[in-house]
Amino acid sequence: MKFFVDTAEIDAIAELNDLGMVDGVTTNPSLIKKSGRDILEVTKEICDLVSGPVSAEVVATDADAMIAEGRKLVEIAENIAVKVPLTWDGLKACKVLSGEGHMVNVTLCFSANQALLAAKAGATFISPFIGRLDDIALDGMELIEDIRTIYDNYGFETEVLAASIRSANHIQDCARVGADVITAPPAVIKSLANHPLTDKGLAAFLADIEAANIKIL
Ligand code: G3P
């Protein structure tokens, strides 16, 4: 399973990238706003740092303008994936941009039928939002499973990019049901390393190291 980092914070991306944990990056207008940076400038910096796909989202809502923005975004670097919303216009833009050979990430997906349309429009990635479905008492993970089944039934090559991930459990469940990619905030990815028994075991070892004055160097 590939790990994308869901942020526009350069330092956080660099830290995970140095560990080989970053297969790509996803951004969106809210993350760009949070970074306080110019979208083109920060996206270029991310592309210089990371070799995998970097999703940059259009801001227009009609197909022609989305296509024009997508063509500008892909000039930033070869690893740009143009992110478009799952609207009828977004699907039109997806069809044109993917037909031109560009990677397209169709975002704001909340149903399996939407995911089916995105695959038929040639999406490279479909981004179903788990957390926001859970927020309204629906089952985000069930959507990931449904899309996986449907894509496998028909051999669609669109990658299932599980988004709106809020917890380590979300990532583990995505791996279990076969999401191709997860995108998560840096803190959630780092939290995968945590276990209370690891902390407890290390504390016991440290006590014994001190008691026995064990030294290696
Ligand atoms: O990739 C989409 C993601 O950023 C949305 O996450 O937590 O705002 O629902 P969230």
Automatic annotation (TrEMBL):
UniProt keyword annotations, A-Z: Cytoplasm, Pentose shunt, Schiff base, Transferase
Active site: 83 (schiff-base intermediate with substrate)
Pathway assigned in UniProt: Carbohydrate degradation; pentose phosphate pathway; D-glyceraldehyde 3-phosphate and beta-D-fructose 6-phosphate from D-ribose 5-phosphate and D-xylulose 5-phosphate (non-oxidative stage): step 2/3
Chief location of this protein within or outside the cell: cytoplasm
CDD domains: Transaldolase_FSA (cd00956)
GO cellular component: cytoplasm
Pfam families registered for this protein in UniProt: TAL_FSA (PF00923)
Molecular function as annotated in GO: aldehyde-lyase activity; transaldolase activity
Enzyme class, broadest EC rank: transferase
Compartments where located: Cytoplasm
EC number: 2.2.1.2
GO annotation terms (biological process): carbohydrate metabolic process; ketone catabolic process; pentose-phosphate shunt
Catalyzed reactions per annotation: D-sedoheptulose 7-phosphate + D-glyceraldehyde 3-phosphate = D-erythrose 4-phosphate + beta-D-fructose 6-phosphate
The keyword Transferase appears for this protein: yes
Taxonomy, superkingdom: Bacteria
Function: Transaldolase is important for the balance of metabolites in the pentose-phosphate pathway.
Family: Belongs to the transaldolase family. Type 3B subfamily.
Cross-referenced NCBIfam families: fsa_talC_mipB
Protein name: Probable transaldolase
Organism annotation: Thalassovita mediterranea
